[in-house]
């Protein structure tokens, strides 16, 4: 067990009608100007926007609308948000959405109290602002777990770079499972797989300790409820479990005392700057290929994953059991109707982009085995 300091400052209100039950009391702690940040028009069609507006009206708040945050938020959108925040003396951003909206708002908040380029400040100078803006979350799409951490991924389109910047933690989070019931399965399922990848990438980091045993329980619950969806049980209970699962992952409780191995995420982030694809869906393409490339570096851990998580109890060699676990993961991905190649996703991965991604993505040295850049290039071509 490595040394660590652990703190989780995020307050979560979970349950039906949570906006009406809790939002008004939380808003008492903030000034008049509330910035509503969201993606497209779905929250207006399903009534969530009107429900939030009603509460804000009862509290006498001044509303500043900030719509149009894309599925892969851009740095240009972040800069627009910082400008709007400053011009309107915003007291709190309400991020109404999923991981993309939340990430965008975190990075906006990181730049509200400085007068320099935050991309350059954080990524080139290594300077994290001491003072940041305030934001809170009303979760309408679960999976990323972004509501629980202080990290935001954004794409700088002009540079073809997708990077993670540091922002504040949410002041509070409202999770009403009713809000995710209207999300189509084809939109919801990639987020479910994203949650599972966060668990797996933590699990396969070097060392084994109590964090891994907790992680196993969470992975089993995600897969159980994922299969319930696959088999047609699209109930409030199932989605509630998956909503809370995704938040639990990003409390980083399962990272305590050990490193994670987020190589697949690093590859996907670098590729995402070109493809602008759905994060969880692209991970579903990359993750099995990555595990096939590295499993021999920790056969015993992959064999344990096979037995405990994928419930494979064959009498066979450790290596074959490990491989069967990866095969079971691939089968689960297909059953969830997630694409298994970039071609299926409708994205043409060229050799030039594969080469650029392999040369620019971060390399993980805390997993089963460190990949070379040539191996990453070959891995991506196998995913075409």
UniProtKB/TrEMBL annotation:
Alcohol dehydrogenase iron-type/glycerol dehydrogenase GldA domain location: 9-177
Single GO MF annotation: oxidoreductase activity
Keywords carried by this UniProt record: Oxidoreductase
Keyword presence, Oxidoreductase: yes
Domain Fe-containing alcohol dehydrogenase-like C-terminal as annotated: residue spans: 193-380
Gene3D superfamilies for the chain: 3.40.50.1970, Dehydroquinate synthase-like - alpha domain (1.20.1090.10)
Domain of life: Bacteria
EC number, as in UniProt: 1.1.1.-
Protein name: Iron-containing alcohol dehydrogenase
Source organism of the structure: Massilimicrobiota timonensis
